[in-house]
Specification:
The chain has 2 domains: 9-148, Response regulator (Rossmann fold); 160-399, Rossmann fold (3-Layer(aba) Sandwich), CATH 3.40.50.300. It contains 18 helices and 13 strands. It has helices at 12-15, 39-49, 65-72, 90-102, 118-126, 139-148, 173-186, 204-207, 216-220, 228-234, 263-272, 286-294, 306-322, 346-353, 365-374, 378-381, 386-399, 413-423; strands at 31-36, 58-63, 81-85, 108-113, 131-134, 160-166, 192-196, 236-237, 242-245, 275-280, 297-302, 330-336, 360-362. The strands form 2 sheets. Strands 8-9-7-10-6-11-12-13 form an 8-stranded mixed sheet, with helices on both faces. The protein starts with 11 loop residues before the first helix and ends with a helix.
């Protein structure tokens, strides 16, 4: 029996939101085979396979539609997911009956078609189709459909991963990551965790005045033990809404990791924490590149000099190209206004990167130094300072919590307005 997750075709327009507004949970390791009838759909599925959320999925594309699928599985096992493009009505229903006879139990089927009809949709669902997507489809439609098969509607929303990294060493990226995470937890009341990925020299424990006996090293060196309960024991509680997965910050061993070393840790945190802030050290390796590309949102921190401008542009361009269906990385300037230091201003950064910085954080050595030495956040020592407000605004931008959208006007808007007024 082919399982399914219903989606009403009448909701197609509402579901076709932009990638920036739609938070899609990544797919697990599954095999997907697509049988397309048009080169346009084949190209779209190919593009979807390159999306970061399908990074663990193995996707194979063939032409021929339903007949090719039936023929292919007469003598071969079926994958986890079959995607079939069709342009007919009668042929697809009869074809699905034939396909059911050669499909393995548990295989899920996604149909891409051009018929927008409730009766037809119900017939597809009755035959066990998992999802029906109306053509022409976009890359994000295919990504959403495949990933949605493995996200239970009843399950808690998957946590949002925010990666913060510096364009150059010493630009204060960790300090900003920790203060932004604090603002997300305190001001937005969103349960969050900071993951300090600089195992040798991480400062999150110092900044939050924490000295936990265990941390991320215990998880990354024991991948077979990683599960929700194990990770929970490693977390250090900083506030009611903020936890820390601390780095050991010791040099008794060498921290060399494979590309996928942190995958199980991030996947586990996603299931329990609404917001995960990754403090990514300034180094370029397989795992750090993977952590940045795999994040839902990225913040690059740069100081206002030439080396930072070059590195920030290189990072921005690479990450934007590697994540075509996501919001472009964000960046901010830090340590702006150092006395007697020549600086490249925000306008020049915006011209080179072709995007404006979301904040220009001033050089405030006394305030930042006091906070660092006392194990406090900026908002703790000077809640009304403009820098504390900047961290709050960055937190809003990264989480989307501070952006309110005006409702679209509709035929019923005046009536709804009268009803609200009469109820007050």
């Amino acid at each position: 029996m082919i399982s399914y997750a219903q989606q009403d075709p009448n909701e197609t327009e509402a579901a076709s939101v932009s990638a920036e507004d739609m938070h899609i949970a990544p797919s697990p390791r599954v095999s997907v085979q697509a049988f397309c009838e048009t080169v346009e759909t084949a190209a779209t599925v190919q593009s979807a396979g390159e999306d970061r959320r399908l990074g663990k999925a193995h996707i194979k594309i063939q032409m021929g539609g339903m007949p090719a699928a039936i023929e292919a599985y007469r003598s071969a096992p079926t994958p986890n997911v079959i995607v079939i493009e069709t342009e007919g009505r009668g042929d697809i229903l009869g074809g699905l009956d034939h396909l059911a006879g050669v499909c393995d139990a548990g295989t899920r089927v996604i149909v891409i078609g051009r018929i927008n009809d409730v009766t037809f949709y119900r017939e597809l669902m009755r035959r066990g189709v998992s999802d029906y997507v109306i053509a022409p489809v976009g890359t994000i439609d295919v990504v959403r459909s495949i990933c949605g098969l493995f996200s239970s509607p009843e399950a808690k929303a998957v946590g949002r991963v925010i990666a913060v990294t510096g364009a150059k060493g010493g630009v204060g990226a960790s300090t900003i990551a920790h203060n932004v995470a604090w603002a997300i937890a305190r001001d937005l009341a969103l349960d969050s965790v900071v993951v300090d990925l600089d195992l040798a020299f991480g400062t999150a424990g110092l900044d939050y005045n924490q000295d936990p006996p265990q941390g991320i090293a215990d998880a990354v060196f024991s991948p077979d033990r990683v599960d929700t309960a194990f990770i929970d024991r490693l977390l250090s509680k900083c506030t009611d809404h903020l936890s820390l997965l601390a780095a050991p910050a010791t040099l008794d061993r060498v921290y060399d990791f494979g590309t996928e070393a942190f995958d199980s840790i991030f996947d586990t945190l996603r299931t329990t924490m609404p917001c995960i802030v990754l403090d990514v050290p300034h180094q370029w390796s397989g795992w750090s590149r993977r952590a940045l590309i795999g994040a839902d949102d990225i913040l690059i921190v740069a100081a206002p000099d030439l080396a930072n401008l070059r590195n920030a542009k290189n990072l921005y361009d690479l990450l934007k190209a590697a994540r075509p269906n996501d919001r472009a990385p964000l960046y901010c300037l830090n340590q702006v206004g150092v006395p007697k230091r020549p600086e490249i201003n925000a306008a020049e950064f915006a011209k080179a990167i072709e995007a404006k910085p979301i904040a220009s954080i001033p050089f405030e050595p006394q305030m930042f130094g006091s906070a660092s030495n006392n194990g406090q956040m900026i908002a703790e020592i000077s809640a009304n300072h403009r820098v504390a407000d900047m961290f709050h605004q960055i937190a809003q931008r990264l989480t989307g919590r501070g952006e309110t959208k005006k409702p679209k006007n509709s035929f019923f808007a005046p009536l709804l307005g009268k009803l609200r007024r009469s109820g007050t």
